[in-house]
Specification:
The protein has a domain of 81 residues. It has 137 residues and is mainly alpha-helical. The chain is built from 4 helices and 2 strands. Strands 1-2 form a two-stranded parallel sheet. Helix 1 packs across helix 2.
Length: 137
């Protein structure tokens, strides 16, 4: 076993995902199961959530996720070409950033960090503004 600082060994159970259809909140140090509504093939596995979000809002979220993916491609390439000094993509994490931002009220404060540019995009931060921020303009 490898050791990390004060840790004697890795707990392999921490790396195994177990899914549940029960959404419960508790205060303990037990590993939290991953709540999901759809499986990897897009099938609903937890009934009752199919119509919780309007089709219009889902399309807006999808549009922002696709846009974020394209923005990542452009800005990551610019960073690799040394046109900008630093950029971290949100590749594969588009839904977490945009979905979280979409679930909040517009009046809620957000403080996006690395890999959370989708939250900015959802709140109306333009691609042009992202470019200005990345180049220090």
């Amino acid at each position: 076993m490898r050791s990390f600082g004060a840790m004697n060994e890795i707990n392999r159970d921490l790396f195994e995902h177990k899914f549940t259809s029960d959404c419960e909140f508790r205060s303990s140090f037990d590993k939290i199961k991953c709540f999901r509504i759809m499986d990897e093939d897009g099938n609903v596995v937890t009934p009752g959530y199919e119509n919780q979000i309007s089709d219009d809002l889902l399309l807006q979220m999808y549009d922002k996720m696709v846009t974020m993916n394209e923005v990542d491609s452009v800005y990551n390439a610019a960073q690799r070409q040394a046109r900008i000094s630093f950029y971290m993509t949100q590749l594969g994490e588009e839904a977490s950033g945009i979905g979280t931002a979409a679930a909040l009220d517009q009046s809620d404060l957000i403080f996006p960090q690395y890999r959370e540019a989708g939250a900015f995009l959802w709140r109306g931060f333009s691609i042009q503004q992202m470019g200005h921020q990345l180049t220090g303009n």
